[in-house]
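Q: My hope is that you can spare some time for a protein that puzzles me. Underneath my words sits a plain record pairing an amino acid chain with its backbone structure tokens. Those tokens are not coordinates but codes from a learned vocabulary of shapes. Thank you; the sequence and its tokens follow:
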Amino acid sequence: MNVMTITKDNFDTEVLHASKPVLLDFWADWCGPCRMLSPVVDQIAAERTDIKVGKVNVDEQPELARQFGVMSIPTLVVMKDGKAVAQSVGVQPKEAILRML
């Protein structure tokens, strides 16, 4: 499955009302650790059809970053049934991200 760009405009439809768990990656262009984590998130999106994966650019979507209390990036959040059920900050190994799911 492809990685979606999540914005405040599509957040309700793509995340809150999603029929499967959603992995959200909060990131920014200028963030080195975010660039390190991005290929891992992309790989998980390609391998797992049972989840949705979305990326939230914190510079373009500050409202969503505030809503989730994102203070440091990268931040990963797992959403199930419209609720955040897991969260991690910083670069994580693929296995740790898969355990979150």
User: Anything to note?
Assistant: The domain at 3-100 is CATH 3.40.30.10 (Glutaredoxin). The chain has four helices and five strands.
